[in-house]
Amino acid sequence: MKKIAYLLSVIIFCSIFTACAQKPAEKTGQDKKQKVILLLPGTLGDKSFFDAANAGMELVKKELGAETKVVEMGTDSTKWEPAFEDASEGDWDIIISGNETTELMNKIAQKYPDKKYINYDTSETENPKNVYSVSYSTNQLSYLAGALGAMVTKSNMELANQENVIGFLGGMDIPGINDFLVGYIEGAQSVNPDVKVLISYAGDFGDPAKGKELGLVQYKSGVDISFNVAGGTGLGLIDAAAETNKYVIGVDSDQALLFKDSDPKKAEHIISSALKKIDQVILNTVKQTAEGKLEYGVHQVMGIVEGGVDLAKNEYFQTLPQDIKDKLTEIEEKFKKGEIQVKSGFNMSTEEIDQLRNSVKP
């Protein structure tokens, strides 16, 4: 009996030891699967700003293995706060949003100090301690777009005309859009001092029909290349470019590649896009958070030097004349060396913006 009891005790001990040895270790630190939610103050499908953020979330899921969720809050701002409250009350590790939600995000963040928030696009530089935010040197980016447009309109490219006029379509007459405009004009004049700029504002970021209407007016007025800085409204400008057989520069996302398969005719008219690398910023900030390397409570400006902005150099861009591509490379190198300084629309008065617009009026 004693021998049997001894054998049973050995078997039980070994079973317990084996079970303990096989039990998976708890995930801690950067090994823990991150839960990340994106709250969009609009809807997907703009092939621009919101789609760029969504692309970032897809990278977070694919490359980091995180659990992700994207919430389209719509344009009714009264519905944004409940969405933020729900996300903050949930078990999400990182809550991401930006732009128009900045004030609300900062307010909510102070109510939930144990949560982490990433603002992927804002001009506000003061943050609560649990918010990390980014802005982009859009004046530098649009300087490149302006130089491109001004060289194209004076080139021998197939769709260029004899008029020395380029276009600009802004979503609204606000500092964020005028920062693009200032850089666009300065970049254009740097390579083509006599160029004129036909400027239109749609008063809306989600009205493609209005964008097309304004785009058609521009192209029929002598513009052969225009710059979309109007979000979803700018999709109408792309329609107008295809319809009138003119050129267009996209914004935020690589808009030519977004249309390449679904509407190749439109894609062929988008010679490049001015990219805010929102997708990469979202991916990198989530990764750095998981590694414990991202410093919250700070704001960072991402320009050409930091790799936060650039022109899309896709297959359509590669068809441009070599001298245009070489000049753009030269301009980028000058930025990296600190040899080019661009004014910012954020620092200019309404009167100064008006004076600048009038100075390039066709």
What can be said about this structure in brief?
By secondary structure, the chain is of the alpha/beta class. It has 2 domains: about 30-135, Response regulator (Rossmann fold, 3-Layer(aba) Sandwich); about 140-275 and about 320-360, Rossmann fold, CATH 3.40.50.
Could you name the key traits of this structure?
single chain; 362 residues; alpha/beta; Rossmann fold; 2 domains; six-stranded parallel beta sheet; six-stranded mixed beta sheet; 13 helices; 12 strands; 45% helix; globular
| CATH architecture grouping of the largest domain | 3-Layer(aba) Sandwich
The largest sheet is: 6 strands, parallel
CATH-assigned fold name of the largest domain = Rossmann fold
Hey, roughly how much beta strand do the residues contain? Answer: 15-25%
Quote the average pLDDT.
91
| Cα end-to-end separation | 107 Å
User: CATH homologous superfamily of the largest domain?
Assistant: Response regulator
Strands of the widest sheet, in order across it, are 2-1-3-4-5-11
